[in-house]
Each structure stands twice: as C-alpha cells, then as structure tokens.
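Example A, followed by Example B.
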Amino acid sequence: QVNSKQGGSPCKEKHVVLLSPVGRIEISGCELGVHEIKLPKISVLPAGAESSVSCEVSPGEQELPEPLQQCTAWLRAYFSEPGGTEGLPVPALHHPLLLRDSFTRQVLWTLLNDVKFGEAVSYKQLADLAGHRGAARAVGGAMSSNPIPIIIPCHRVIRSNGDSGNYGGGQLLKEWLLSHEKLQKEKLQK
C-alpha cells in the first residue's frame, strides 16, 4: 500500500495487465501516478525483436486512472511503434522510492532523462552522468530497485565490457529489449 503525500492516506490502487510480446506486464498505480511495473520472468526468448501490435490491455482501459492509461499507451507504443514514445508524456510516477530525494532517485531520473531509446551506457558512465564518479556498484543497486522498468530504462545499463549485466526481468528479457531497441532505431534511421 502506497501512502499519498496529502495527509498520508492510502492510495486507491488499481491494477492493469498488458499482454505484450514479452508476456504479461502487471502495472499498478493510482490517480497520482504509477506505483510499479512488474515484468514477466521469461525462460524462452520471444520470437524476433521486431515491433509487434499484439499489446492488449485487460480490464477495460476507461476504468483506469489517467497515469495508468498513459502508462499502457506508452508501453504499447514502445512495443509496436517505438519512435512514438518520444512524443508521449511519461506517466506520473508515484512510488515512495521516486518521491523522496535519494541517490537511487537521482540515478533513475538521470537514466530516464539522459539515456535515449536505442542507446546503452555502462554503470560507470551512468554514475558519472549522475554526478557520482566511482559509484558504479551503487548504480547497480539503484537499477535493481527500479520500480518502473522499461519506462525508466534500466535495461539500457550494461557492464563496461559490453556484457548486458543483470536485470530484474532476467537476462533473456534484457537482451530482447536491447535488441528490440537497436532494431527499431535502425528502422527509424532508414
């Protein structure tokens, strides 16, 4: 249960499931913003990293608070027409980790704002971008606590040697997301 800032009263949390090319993505949030995105654990790589229009939402989208509607629209665009995410607003985020000033919040916001679609940075580079030289390990910790994966693109953070590194949704999902973005970026540039 997430407490809202006004008077500490609990949010009226809603849930939605997005059926995506990588499986069931569970999204929770309230009128104030998205609380969390839970990725599926996949053990088999989904076929191809090309864009897919097979993103379906259940239950009916009209019953959802605006931040959840924006989140599902953003994720649908990410999977089906990735160039379209640039023009979409990032949904309001309402997770305690993102509301209080902290190293993790600073690193996640830097990642969201500075590492664009189809790009990748090392943990060390992200530490430097966030103004914390030498904090590559701490950046790894911040990535593992990211409550809003894909939108806050922790999958774009890789090891300095080029290995993809760990990911909350698993190695295969991280590699699929990186491949998907690379392929889509190449298509957009043609």
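Example B, a separate protein, is given below in the same form.
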Amino acid sequence: VGPIFSEDVFGIVGENFTFPVEIKQRIEEITWKKNKDKVAEWDGQNPPIYFIPLQGRSVLNENGNLTIFNLEKSDAGGYELQYWDSVNDTYLKFILAVLDPPSEPNISYSIKDDNLVLNCTSDFQRPVTYTWKLSNDPRSHWSQEFSIPINNIDATTKAICFITFSQTEKSSEISLIQCIS
C-alpha cells in the first residue's frame, strides 16, 4: 500500500465538481467510496457503475477523475479513490466541503479629491475575484477598489461590481450620480 494522502477540496452548491486526480499510468481498476460506501467503480473493461447517491449525476473517467454534477450540500464528506495499476493498489483521500454560493457583493463609496472611490466587498469565506465595469465603458477593471474622476460621471453612468468564485458569478450595481449629488 502506497502512502495515504488526504486533500481538502471544496465546491459550490449547484456547480459541477471534479476531484483533482492526475494519474499518469494505465489503470486496471478504480473504486471511489464516500464515507466507506462505494459510489462509483470501473473494472477496466465495461462502462463504470454508479451507486446511490451519485447515480445519474456523476461521471468517472478512465484516468480516475470523478465529476459530480449539480453539487448538493449532502455531497460533502470524505471520499477515497482506490486504483490498481496491475502492480500497486494506491489510495487517495479527499475531504469535500460544499459551500453556499456567494451572495451579491456590497458596494460602498467615498469622495477623495476629485474622484469617486468605489469599494466592493463580499461576505464569502474564500477569496473571490473582483471586477468593475462601467455602463459607458466596455473595459473591465480587475480590482476591489475602483476610482473614477468625478467629471467623467454623467446622469446615466452606472458601475457594476462582479465577484467571481469558481464557476459562480454575482453582481451589484450602483448609479454614480446618486453618489456625488
């Protein structure tokens, strides 16, 4: 038996999640278990077999990758991959946490010199990517704080903050004229 190694992984409710497995050699047999119960297995010949709770919502690839579609809270738990490459049995362990998607971000603002300074915050427990877009400008600005010269603001300009985590994106928008009037 090779070394047993456990990795913390996480996915978001409603997303598809693939365990980060990279097996280079040819595999003869694969078994995936969740909390000691079989959830998927492949004998090297026939199509993979899936068991409840992953039946109908997962795919097992020949390289050992297991993907769960439309992740649910109940998918959280300890998973174990066991594979046989005709020489060794190898075990990989994963602890899957399933997080609620982030909620819409919060936008706050202040006026500094001749600029309107916007700040975007998220209550999400993991680092997110922040992007700003202005309604009158096609470019994206990749930052949590965004500064706009006040003379560039007209009555219709809106700013939208997007937060992205994994495959999930949420946004909030603010009308800039109300910030400076």
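On Example B: The mean pLDDT is 93.
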